[in-house]
Amino acid sequence: MRGVRVWIDLTNSPHVLVMRPVIEALREEGHEVEVTARDFAQTLGLLERFRIGHTAIGRHRGERLGAKAVGLASRSGALVRWARARGRAGAGARGRFDVALGHGSNDVGVAAAALRIPSATMFDYEWASAQHHLNCRLARAVVVPEAIPVERLRGYGAEGKLQRYEGLKEEYYLADFEPSEAVLGELGLDRGRAIVTVRTPPEVSLYHRFENDLFARVLERLREAGAREGAQTVVLARTEAQRRELGAGSGAGALIVPDRAIDAQSLIAHSDLVISAGGTMNREAVALGTPVCTIFEGRLGAVDERLIGEGRLRRLRGVDDLGAIDALGVARACARERPPRVRRDPRVLAQLLMRAAPHL
User: For residues 199-234, b (16+ Cβ closer than 10 Å) or e, as one string?
Assistant: First the structure.
């Protein structure tokens, strides 16, 4: 099997984690891989931490629909120009790209279609309908976990393209992971006291755009636990605006807000409790055996529904459920009885994505 030219585009922090072992697997198989990335959240910082060479193209344009449309058009156009230039640069070797891969990247799907490059998309949350209506129709392969019922994907244009994998994507990209204690020293954490890790919601502003103020109440409860019990709360913000807002305040119960990309997976592994308003960190905690609660306010996807049904993920629906945060001693007891980790071969994901390549 001859090597091909592979283009991978990363638009958000979790995509770096998922694609890191995929990139390694593809290069080990003799493929030439080039990476583009959007300046958003910790995407560029994580690429630098993992020493993944990349070209930064474009930035996040905001949450409003109009801003997203402008961002899609602008960045997709920039990607087209970059790919054409790289195709000319590689003409003496392997020429234009043979396949383009992304994890929910609208931009690379549009750009690849414009360049007539076959593409594959990957996701594990089925209700991002606007994204999937576009990506699934443009892609040649659609890689999803088998937990998502096929009927939930009908109407996206994914029929005949589905490539399904077992378990959680986090069990694949964390397969070679062993936690380091360096992050504890980096953040000044005392392993003798409870450690709680929190992930913010995707909204740019934390407190002023919620109809439900559950996240703000969670933070307040954790501040109280810090002042009363010495619990240490690390909040991983998605944006600089969130970091500034969270960093205000000091004294007993103050939150620890890292100002750069850190080894979040090691932090999760050493935490006694994880509370996340997103999806990836919830599943990382599950994969690493750390007790975890979700405060995600949107519609639950099939993967999280299954984890909740299996008792591997707890959902906090409102203030009445916040007793779980007071029971840090219970969380620590659970942490001592962590289930064995499931490690899956990330080459499986690489193979499924590469089914979009016409030469393989």
Answer: bbbbbbebeeeeeeebbebbbebbbebbeeeebbbb
